[in-house]
Amino acid sequence: MKPLKGKSSGKSLFPPMALIHVDGHSEVKNRDRSNPFEAEAIVKWLLENRDRIVERYANGKEYVQIEDMVGIITPFVGQKKKLWHLLKKAGFDCNRMKVGTVHALQGAERPVILFSMVYGPEDAATMFFDRGPNMLNVAVSRAKDSFLEFAHKEILQKNKTAPSGLLGAYLQEI
What we know:
Elements: E1 17-21, E2 27-29, E3 32-34, H1 36-57, H2 66-69, E4 70-74, H3 77-89, E5 98-101, E6 110-116, H4 134-141, E7 143-151, H5 163-170, E8 172-173
Parallel strand pairs: 1-7, 1-8, 4-5, 4-6, 6-7
Antiparallel strand pairs: 2-3
Helix pairs in contact: 1-3
């Protein structure tokens, strides 16, 4: 896994690849994995950065509302459901915003992609996307300007050769 994005468009508000540390853990209910700490952190971050994102990217054509400018990717349907609930509660148009699993967002690009990894430090040995680079590659490639990963930094062990470790080596912590 190696980022090949080239130079930034110059419009980016955030680093091309960054980690936003979330101190939390995942939970499993009815075989659905989610991380309420990450979901809440993402919604809070969106509310705090909404005006800046819209001001920077709004062009009256392709990008009109924040929902056109930001996509949220997660490996788990349970996390997607949790995000939808919190986003709707915060006033976001979930029918317009791309929120879903990596598979559901294949081909959908946005200037800013938020990635909710979901796993906590207690799950580090069981991360299914470490079996191969494809899933994380697709997630990273959906971002036109910035890929921001919301995760517990302990699960991105930079010295590992696993996909999550390789990705962690490129992420700037903010």
